[in-house]
Amino acid sequence: MSEVQTVKTAIHEMAHQKLHAIEHSDKNMSRNSKEVEAESVAYTVCQHYGIDTSDYSFSYVAGWSEGKEIPELKASLDTIRRAASEMISSIDEKLEVLMNQKVQEQAVEKPESVADDKTDRKEQLQELLKATAEQLSPEAKKAEVQDKEKAEAKPEKKKSVKKQLSEKKEKSERTAKNKKTETKNLGEAI
């Protein structure tokens, strides 16, 4: 599964959780309607961030909405709009926090390069969107809690600041290299 498809699928599943969890669910709503809503929210959120999922999303929605009447589909539009708007707001808030953290990390690693950072904002947003989707998913939250519990159970030796900075720099360089490779592969695929 491509990175774009993975991000879209994570957002699709988060939309199901937001719209169709037991406490929010309309028990009379068909599975078809739920799938149309979730995919439509995922498509809208991805489009907002410049991630094109139309090739998959349009056929997916068409398949699940087959046989539905226009009034029935229009009834979901406000739900789709509201859910997409709420998810975008939530992601934007998290992106702002992550962007500020990244700037602070860069300032620690290379103070002189912060002002000269020429990384494409769209690529940063896509990377952070993926990270946010992972962090917002229920499974990620559960894993995060488990990791914290493990960390509290087994205190690790503290690393020196120099070692931490070195590890962050290596991680940043690997991320940049991977991003360039993914961008190149995406460009070749298009």
Describe this structure as you would to a colleague.
By secondary structure, the chain is an all-alpha fold. It folds into 2 domains: 3-155, no CATH class; 157-190. It contains 8 helices and no strands. The protein has helices at residues 3-20, 31-48, 54-64, 70-74, 77-109, 121-136, 138-153, 161-189. Helix 2 (31-48) packs across helix 5. The longest helix has 33 residues, at 77-109. The two termini are 16 Å apart.
Structure, briefly:
With 190 residues, the protein is mainly alpha-helical. The protein has helices spanning 3-20, 31-48, 54-64, 70-74, 77-109, 121-136, 138-153, 161-189.
SSE diagram, text form:
Elements: H1 3-20, H2 31-48, H3 54-64, H4 70-74, H5 77-109, H6 121-136, H7 138-153, H8 161-189
Helix pairs in contact: 1-2, 1-6, 2-3, 2-5, 5-6
Q: How would a crystallographer describe the biggest sheet? A: none
Q: Which outline best applies?
A: elongated
Percent range for helical residues? Answer: over 70%
> What is the count of distinct domains?
2
The number of helical segments is 8
